[in-house]
Amino acid sequence: MPLARILSRLRPFFFASFALMSPLDSTLLAAPAADAAATWPAPLVRHRADPWVLRDGDGYLFIATVPEYDRIELRRAPTIAGLAQAEPVVIWRKHASGPASHHIWAPEIHRIDGKWYVYFAAGRAEDIWAIRMYVLECSSADPLAGPWIERGQLRTHLETFSLDATTFEHRGVRYLVWAQHDPAIGGNTSLFIARMDSPVSIAGKPVRISVPELPWEVIGYRVNEGPAALIRNGRVFLAYSASATDANYCLGLLTADENADLLDPASWKKSPVPVLASSESARVFGPGHNSFTTLPDGRDVLIYHARDYRDIAGDPLQNPDRHTRAALLRWREDGTPIFDFGP
Prior knowledge:
By secondary structure, the protein is mostly beta strands. The chain has one domain: 5 Propeller (Tachylectin-2, Chain A). It has two helices and 21 strands. It has helices at residues 3-20, 23-26; strands at residues 49-56, 59-65, 71-77, 89-93, 102-112, 115-124, 127-138, 149-153, 162-170, 173-180, 190-198, 201-210, 224-232, 235-242, 250-257, 269-270, 285-294, 300-307, 323-328, 330-331, 337-338. The strands form six sheets. Strands 1-2-3-4 form a four-stranded antiparallel β-sheet, with no helix packed on it. It has a four-stranded antiparallel β-sheet with strand order 5-6-7-8, with no helix packed on it. Strands 9-10-11-12 form a four-stranded antiparallel β-sheet, with no helix packed on it. It starts with a helix and ends in a 5-residue tail after the last strand. 39% of the residues are buried. The model is unreliable at 1-33 (pLDDT under 50).
């Protein structure tokens, strides 16, 4: 039978089948999503540690630690994949001396009450390990255009080494979570939470919710740092980073019920094992200091940094090869997250 005749007989069947497809089925014939995980470069952004990605309207803002530790950059792209090539804009530079003049680390950008805020950590040129938390503020609709003003140090109950401030709102209350050294218990840094009374200050006494104590949290240094919050499935999740910033760096997870008192340390349960750690097979080493964002279809995305090799020559803090990576966050049937390495 001629091919044309065969096709003419099949055509009605094809169109009838297409008409019977449900809307969900018919999407399978659509073009791939513009920001599908398969399109994300791996790594996503090279030489950027402590990444924070914020979905803003129809696009994404990206902010991270630069290897020179001397400035804060911000970039925007319509998709996560586009952040790889987006042009960075310097919104602030370190001072020559005094507060915020050395070790400019781990900036985060947040939109609060119609203004933009960047939380970051910094030392002093005169005392480079006098790390404290600071805040920048921008009233402009466009955070890349600025101007940004300094709101000073974000003070806590202790005047000690402190960094990695993050903030989230839950049931009408805004919280600050951060890492700080407490001389009373030793070690390097533990995680604290407090209620905020403004975007630049906390109210009440901070509460310690996690201490580095498990074997995977104390390799090289006794560290809990880099918290990031995600509220899903009736729970408040706090991912955090632990151990030294070499291949031993890894992600842990704290979980609280959404109805619990988040200022009660007993509300938080710690995963007994890391939720993301170095993998020879994936060629991902020292994954940590993450953030979370979402795709336009609502799926959750894990953003984190890692190196693509294990052995580091010299001081890990002077190594520029911590690269930003992205991965879809999957979920178990019990509502808990599955962390993965991504493409």
